[in-house]
Fold:
Amino acid sequence: MNINPKIKEKIVLALDVTTIDEAKELINELKDYVGVFKVGLQFYTGNGDELFRLMNDMKLKYFLDVKLMDIPNTVAKASENIIAKGADFFNIHALGGKEMMQKCVEAANSAAEKLGREMPTILAVTILTSISDEKLHNELGINENVSEYVLKLAKLAKDAGVTGVVASVFEAKRIKEACGNDFKVLCPGIRPVWSAKNDQQRLATPTLALNEGADYLVIGRAVTAASDRVEAMKKIYEEIEEIL
Ligand code: C5P
Structure:
């Protein structure tokens, strides 16, 4: 199969495993098809550094999904460390505020520049999908509805110079309309029609996600839990190829 680089750069594979051997297996099997490997808190706090060494040696792009939120100075210093590790993508909470996001962008960009690396892709998390309207009002005391609040935080992130946001496919179009087409949207919850839903609620196919404006698709169990992972990934490529 000819690998279309335009599709590859959109594919973010969730390395939601525990051991370095499991991660190596996924990387070796799927690296030709994956633009960016996503490493979450589970792996990061476990065998993170070993995995980063491996991915740096293999010159693979990776995304530290660690959702930073603290005072601006602390987030700025942590962002420099993330760049020094070798990550190309990482994320922060928009709820940390505009100054925190600005300091993060400045620190990460200048660290990347000093190292002669590409400018990092910094994504803001707006409201976690585990927070409903009810929780936002009753627990957090914020009297807005989630979808409006997501948009407000996306605009704040854009003003702070952040590259884009992590968002549901169902929010992607409105975010693009409000923040412009260059503002990137990375969408989890992707399921081709042939794959299992697992515990995800608001799912979308790769086709729908791209039609709604997603720039990056987080691919997790649709591929990693498939009996033939390479075949599952090829099917996703074929689906995307039809609409590109
Ligand atoms: O396996 P699945 O496709 O459900 O993988 C989902 C990945 O996307 C996980 O790494 C998860 O942390 C992430 N994610 C999500 N829903 C969000 C944000 C991130 O599933 N709202």
About this structure: The chain has one domain: 5-241. Residues 98-114 form the longest helix (17 residues). The chain has a mean pLDDT of 96.
